[in-house]
């Protein structure tokens, strides 16, 4: 059977504008039927015939065609595809803004996802970072906290009251297993871990984060007492 016909038959299960990662699709659906060279040549021809649309290197979709022309996946559709079913999460200013920590926004959206095979990829305005992990609720909450702490000095117009509220909420639901899981998967700075330790200690939450830190090191982190004093002013 012709390579293109095989690919089209196996693409039938995909909806229009659903992301198709070429290397994974080949491995899961076509490796038993054609060579990799024939596969990619067929993808190229399908793009030329407008049966497929190339969104980024190694990423395709079946184009959604309307009377106004071809409509490509929106940022929301791309993000949903890469974060649904606990496969990823949004970080960066999109995260900070959604948590009401700042009103600032960014042109680029940053996503951590386990759906990738490459370490990094850019799909339109969405920057993707591969982390092979389960983004369940407690894990996501821990990553959110660590991301904010790691970038505390860089977040523009940081709302200190909202930041302290976030610290209180995280401390009240702290999950040590989720925290250890995240720290084993994502290499956060020691300073960030020390900051998290101070947040937990301020709220009298037992933790074992000192095993990730050096007793001989001093970390540049703000005093929780000073943060609360500043927030009252």
Provide structural commentary.
With 233 residues, the protein is α+β, with helices and mostly antiparallel strands. 45% of the residues lie in helices and 14% in strands. The chain contains ten helices and nine strands. The protein has helices spanning 3-11, 22-30, 36-48, 75-83, 93-98, 137-150, 160-172, 176-185, 190-202, 224-232, and strands spanning 20-21, 53-56, 59-61, 64-66, 69-71, 88-91, 109-113, 120-123, 126-130. The strands form three sheets. The protein has a four-stranded mixed β-sheet with strand order 6-7-9-8. Strands 1-3-2 form a three-stranded antiparallel β-sheet. Strand 8 (120-123) and strand 9 (126-130) form a beta hairpin. The radius of gyration is 22 Å and the shape is elongated.
